[in-house]
Amino acid sequence: MSRKLPHLLMILAFMLIVSLPLIPPLPAPAQLWQADCTTQTGLPLACWLKAWVKIPSTFNTYFSDHYRLHQQEVHLLESARLYLLNEKTFPNVLIGKEDWLYYTGENNIQDYECTMPFTKAELAAIRERLLAWNERLQQRGIRFYVVIAPNKESIYPQYLPDRVQAGVRACRIDQVLAELQDAPLNVLDLRSPLQRAAQTAQVYHRTDTHWNSTGALVAAQTILARIQKDFPDLGVPSAEEYTREIREHSGDLAGFLPRDARFVEREAFLVPLQPSAVVFEEGSGGTAVSSIAGSDLPRAVIFCDSFADALKPYLSEHFSRAVYSRSFNLDFDLIEREQPDIVIFEVAQRYLTVLR
Amino acid sequence: MELNSPVFLFIFLPVFLVFYSACPARARNVLLLVSSAAFLIWGDPLYFPLIFGLTLLTAAFLAGIQKNAADICKVKRLRTAGVAINLISLLCFKVLAAYGTSILAAAVQAGIYLPSWISVYLPQIARLPLGLSFLVFQAVSLLLDAPYKTANNGRLLLPASLHLLLFPKAISGPLVRFDQFRQQVSEQQFSLEQAAAGLRRFMLGFAKKALIADQLALVANSGIFNQAPARIPAESAWIAILCYALQIYFDFAAYSDMAIGLGQVLGFKFQENFNHPYWSVSITDFWRRWHMTLSAWFRDYVFYPLEKKRARSKKGSQSLNLLIVFLLTGLWHGITPPFIVWGLIQGAAVALENGSFGRRLRRLWPPLQHLYALLVILFGWVFFRSPSLAYAFQFLKALGNVFSPVKPLPYSVFPPISTLTWIAFGAGILLSLPLNKITESCLSKVDRENRSWIWVKYGLALALFLLAIVVQAGTNYQPFIYGEF
Lengths: 356, 485
Description:
In chain A, 37% of the residues lie in helices and 18% in strands. By secondary structure, chain A is an alpha/beta fold. In chain A, helix 9 crosses helix 10. In chain A, 34% of the residues are buried. Chain B is mostly helical. Chain B folds into two domains: 6-188, no CATH class; 194-484, no CATH class. Chain B has 21 helices and no strands. The mean pLDDT of chain B is 90. Chains A and B meet through helix 1, helix 2, helix 3 and helix 4 of A and helix 1, helix 5, helix 10 and helix 21 of B.
């Protein structure tokens, strides 16, 4: 028996290692059936077959990310890469100079380096889509504004590693702006005002993809100043209406990395000096609604992404009612219901691709 | 299902091993067959009916051969028909995988009317069914090797089906001769020592895959091979092709280790597939060390028959036969011009080495022989990895462009190589050398049966296995390259 002991222990150790991910509690079951073949026209049998044969790969993908101890294993590896190997590149995050974090997912760096420009056909499609929206809104007497929220790299390229260089060819945002130059559209490129503001204050979080409250105020000022040209009664917020409060913040990019004091920043958050009259509530279909009782300011519907989260407190002060919908598609049913004076389409620079 | 996928490692394998060890010996082969079918259905549910159908058809031809053993002409006809059906199936799918979508695009461009479902579903089915290449080669071996005049003919069905479907080797080999396999099926025994040694081999294979091949894949698959080669600086091109060379070796050698290890657990002894191929002194030597079971298959079923025919007819030449063999080897990997050229490069080199060039080469200082072999191998990999011949030639130009500086590739195309990848690169180079010979001589004084030596071996394998699981979790598992061929 003693001669067999090492072999037996080795087999048991192996079995223990490969069985650990099956020790309860098991992950929640995956959504394996991913097709709606009842509404399918043409070949419903092919649709069913396709859905059936996809089940194993769907489960494989799900299980690969959800098996027991997976998160701990990922965390262990990333801690080793951060602390032992001092690496700078992680899934979705790049650690820049002075611990500034940059998002590398969704082709963000490709966008900055202009290695994936839009084709002519894509640019034409973007133009056509925006013009079609504008025309439909104009028919209803609604003003339409397109706001492009700059990527962090566009405002703070100086903290990127030296290897990351701004592209020399036309980048997507420049291509889109050039394509829309002669179009009857209100397109707001926020890069210049934010770059100017960045010379005197920090306008993006160091550990986050988004602008901070100072950057959001600059963005809101620019947007509202433009809208003011069409609606002169509209106000534009000023920095004097706010006071600074220092808080600790660890942003969405820090969430991709092992927890570390390096990725907790202390920065100024703007807090209004006067109490606000705005009431926020949840709207239908996942929308957020702000309203000011008794106000005769314009009404707005804002289609937006996560950059609008920091904008809401500023914009909401200047609309009698504002409905914020997290969507890259204009929901005309919502617009019909709300009857707004203004529709704003806010899109992050890296998401311009959704318009093609 | 891949041998390194979490579903295989953490669900299929432990469940299977528990059942297998609890199963009575007489039912183990049936359990193996059922498990192998489940493995293949889960791996490729769309094409499993084809794999299953080909297995049944091959078994039916085998039964026909046995039944007509007395009629040698009929046996020959049945063998030819069985081999032809298998090879034609493989050819059809190779063509479909290589050209299906481009034929569809050309048809659409030419204005040819196609039902909409063809354009919807063809791109999704235009690929090689999982395990088809290896199944067909095993089926050919089975039909040509099956002993139709032996007494226990009636017992061939189970070993034949296992030969074709056995899960550790179903997807990417090693290719096993049926006569050897059949004997093992009837004699296989489960022993603790053998199972532990097999699991150790499996774990080391998994570690090779996750710690070396998949780390190098981060460079080789980073997007550099999608760039116009004119924009690629020489140093990046060299790093990329060296990483690819190491990646493909460790990827496939890892698979072979895992398959051989699992086979050992089950009581089989599969042939070795690799023997430090990058330590070759010539391309002939390389093919004795690289994918050895495929080389042996082509040698036995293509080269020897061609040579016999040449000897009978006194026509042709050995060089021509070598070129034919390697052309077919290239085609087996893919029916596209880069694979064909890759095969021809190998064939031409082996043919040249058979003549006076080979004699001169063997007289060279050994390091120069190694250098020659490595350069020809890398030259071949450029074609193997390139999407087109034009790309391959331009990439070769980029490799040679050492003295005219090209602007570095953007970060997003070719990110800086991480420390972990450099470690994998160094380990890859080190492990490509025949270190086992050195360690064997160093350890010759150590008693191999010594308990502490066994503890060290097992402890090291378990530690590497754990490390590999952690690294794979953080880098996402990559399928095996040879699963595509």
